[in-house]
Design brief:
The chain is an alpha+beta fold. It has a single domain (about 5-160), classed as Beta-Lactamase. Helices cover about 50% and strands about 15% of the residues. The protein has helices at about 5-15, 25-40, 65-85, 85-95, 100-105, 140-155, 160, and strands spanning about 45-50, 55-60, 120, 130-135. Strands 2-1-4-3 form a 4-stranded antiparallel β-sheet. A hairpin with a 4-residue loop joins β1 and β2 (about 55-60). α1 (about 5-15) runs antiparallel to α4 (about 85-95). The radius of gyration is 14 Å and the shape is globular.
Length: about 160
């Protein structure tokens, strides 16, 4: 794994995967796109989409998940809300510096998980309006499921944006 390449690609993803408008219908479309991909790839995951005010717009749990995935969703989403970047990008930044969220920022591991799977829902203006989170498979796969779903809904080329 090359941190420099990953970080550059993660930044590119966050710049490219933004919405003109994000509403209830968009959340439904995104959640179902991610669910369809997860089912096709036989990945047991929880998918959560909520606005920054906490209103949950989409939720589903697929076979193979358990209540612990809900805690992972909460902790990963907290990272996005705090840093306004994907949980995987923050995790990779910290790992590249050989540190963690507690040491570097004084945030508790009980509330913040810098593992892949939570991604900022942002408008083209850059305004953060929500978080989409996946939990259930290894972190890089959680992140990839979110990116695949975003690419599908936004009409972006997944091959150009995916992590190697």
């Amino acid at each position: 794994m090359n941190f420099t390449e990953d970080l550059a690609r993660l930044q590119k993803q966050e710049e490219a995967l933004r919405f003109e408008v994000f509403d209830f219908d968009t959340a439904w479309e995104l959640g179902n796109a991610i669910r369809d991909i997860a089912v096709q790839e036989e990945k047991g995951v929880v998918i959560d989409i909520h606005r920054l005010d906490g209103l949950q717009l989409f939720f589903t749990a697929l076979p193979g998940t358990n209540p612990d995935n809900l805690n992972w969703v909460r902790r990963k989403a907290n990272v996005v809300k705090h840093f306004q970047k994907s949980s995987y990008q923050i995790g990779q930044e910290l790992r590249s510096q050989d540190t963690d969220v507690t040491t570097a920022h004084g945030l508790s591991d009980a509330d913040y998980a810098t593992h892949g799977g939570a991604f900022p829902i942002a408008l083209k203006t850059g305004e953060l309006v929500g978080v989409v989170t996946v939990s259930g498979v290894p972190q890089r796969e959680d992140h990839a499921l979110v990116v695949k779903g975003l690419c599908r809904v936004l009409g972006q080329d997944h091959e150009a944006l995916k992590l190697d």
